UniProtKB/TrEMBL annotation:
It is an enzyme of class 2 (transferase). It comes from Paractinoplanes durhamensis. This is 3-phosphoshikimate 1-carboxyvinyltransferase. Residues 16-421 form the Enolpyruvate transferase domain. It catalyses: 3-phosphoshikimate + phosphoenolpyruvate = 5-O-(1-carboxyvinyl)-3-phosphoshikimate + phosphate. The gene is aroA1. Its EC number is 2.5.1.19. The active site is at E317 (proton acceptor). Catalyzes the transfer of the enolpyruvyl moiety of phosphoenolpyruvate (PEP) to the 5-hydroxyl of shikimate-3-phosphate (S3P) to produce enolpyruvyl shikimate-3-phosphate and inorganic phosphate. Signal peptide: none annotated. PANTHER family: AROM/DEHYDROQUINATE SYNTHASE, PENTAFUNCTIONAL AROM POLYPEPTIDE. Keywords: Amino-acid biosynthesis, Aromatic amino acid biosynthesis, Cytoplasm, Transferase.
Length: 430
């Protein structure tokens, strides 16, 4: 069952009356938890996932794997266990609004013996899927998709996938590549996947996929740009230790920046598979001081919030929170390179342009991004479009601008069901 947050609709974002200075402990990375679940389900022995993310996206992933016959025990929030089994249909999978499920699970379902049906939230049907469906067909999988090539999908699992070579245009989502690679070691001939088209976004997420595949024992070659090779072979069960979710931490870091305080993300590892270097560059350019020590990763507000010009293609899921900071900055910002986020939980470029304009910013919408000119901001209703990161953006603005009313905050359950309580606690302690 997905977690439901009983928060009022609309939700008035709390305003900070003093600097937010605190340490936060946040759950594990959504992206790492999703990959650990898939790799564990395809392994030849049991696995444990320590400090996973328990949220709608990962609970639905666990439920999807259970529907395919895998034993996933999520009873202990600190340590989930996965006992693989031969995958089988018939099964039905609810993907919710999760890109990770709709792109990572169909390739695994193709290995199942039986029919596996996929569907999700109304907007999930609009999210791009065609390239991965066509690549799977080229690899010998029988799939029925909607007229637009997306959900609802039916995968006719034959118990094996021939695999081999495939060409894909992954410019709309790195998850098409990650999804195919995660199951590829179990394809009879493995996989040689070549991307052809405009650049693939989210390179750090691709590196996370190849790191985790190697950690599970797969042989992966990514030495040729835009070509990924996974040799056929077994995957090992293991213990995955999940890092705190860096993208989920972004609004909390932004709180330090907006209020001139300091927020430490506790439990941050010395070396990470998430794009902490890029986040540090961006927050520093915006005016923050970022440091790492035994207590964790700390972002300190300096009282200065500068506008920036940045290509966010590597860290596109940060666009909403960075846009919120840009709307509160001293000068204009131009955030580009993220056309594909029009296919995220909502069309994030259009949604940010509409909502930031409503609160008073001057916004120009480009095909691949936004120009944001700060203006005096004012109270307003803020539509969240069922998008957790739109809610984060609104909450960040609300710290500085009284009267920001989110149409819905429960959408944050996608990746952090505790968000409303954690956010209120942050301000209460300020
Ligand atoms: O592989 C992953 O876990 C993700 C990859 C990225 O997707 P896109 O490449 O579609 O942006 C990112 O935005 C998403 O939140 C998570
Ligand atoms: C784009 C996102 O999610 P998804 O994994 O559903 O694509 C996101 O979390 O910002």
């Amino acid at each position: 069952m997905a977690t439901v947050t009983a928060e009022p609709r609309p939700w008035l974002a709390p305003t900070a009356s003093a600097p937010v200075s605190t340490a936060v402990t946040l759950p594990g990375s959504k992206s790492m938890t999703a990959r650990a679940l898939i790799l564990s389900a395809l392994a030849d022995g049991p696995s444990a996932i320590e400090r996973p993310l328990r949220a709608r996206d990962t609970e639905l992933m666990a439920a999807g794997l259970r529907a395919l016959g895998v034993t996933v025990d999520t009873g202990d929030s600190e340590r989930w266990t996965v006992e693989p089994a031969p995958l089988r249909g018939p099964a039905r999978v609810d993907v919710g609004l999760a890109g990770t499920i709709m792109r990572f699970l169909p390739p695994a379902a193709a290995l199942a013996d039986g029919v596996v049906e996929f569907d999700g939230d109304p907007h999930a049907r609009n999210r791009p899927l065609r390239p991965i469906v066509e690549a799977l067909r080229a690899l010998g999988v029988s799939i029925d998709a909607s007229a637009t090539g997306g959900l609802p999908l039916t995968v006719h699992g034959a118990g094996l996938v021939e695999g081999g070579e495939a060409v894909i245009d992954a410019s709309a989502s790195s998850q098409f590549v990650s999804g195919l690679l995660l199951s590829a070691a179990r394809f009879t001939k493995g996989l040689v996947l070549r991307h052809e088209g405009p650049p693939v976004p989210s390179a750090p997420h691709l590196r996370m996929t190849t790191h985790m595949l190697r950690a599970a024992g797969a042989t992966v070659d990514e030495s040729v740009p835009d070509v990924w090779t996974v040799a056929p072979g077994p995957l090992s069960g293991r213990t995955w230790v999940i890092e705190p979710d860096l993208s989920g931490a972004a609004p909390f870091f932004a709180a330090a920046m907006v209020t001139g305080g300091a927020v430490t993300l506790a439990g941050w590892p010395e070396s990470s598979w998430q794009p902490v270097g890029r986040l540090t560059e961006l927050l520093t350019a915006l005016g923050a001081e970022v440091s790492q020590g035994p207590d964790g990763l700390t972002v300190r507000g300096t009282g200065t919030l500068r506008g920036i010009t940045a290509d966010l293609s590597e860290v596109s899921e940060l666009t909403p929170v960075i846009s919120a900071l840009a709307a509160l900055a001293e000068g204009p910002s131009e955030l580009r390179g993220v056309e594909h986020i029009r296919g995220h939980e909502t069309d994030r470029i259009a949604a940010l342009a509409a909502e930031l304009s409503k609160v008073g910013a001057e916004v120009t919408e480009f095909r691949d991004g936004l120009r944001i000119e700060p203006r005096p901001l004012h109270a307003s209703s803020f539509e969240t479009y069922a998008d957790h990161r739109m809610a984060h953006a609104a909450a960040v603005i609300g710290l500085a601008v009284p009267g920001i009313e989110l149409t819905d905050v429960a959408c944050t359950s996608k990746t952090l069901p505790e968000f409303p309580e954690l956010w209120a606690g942050l301000v209460a302690r300020s």
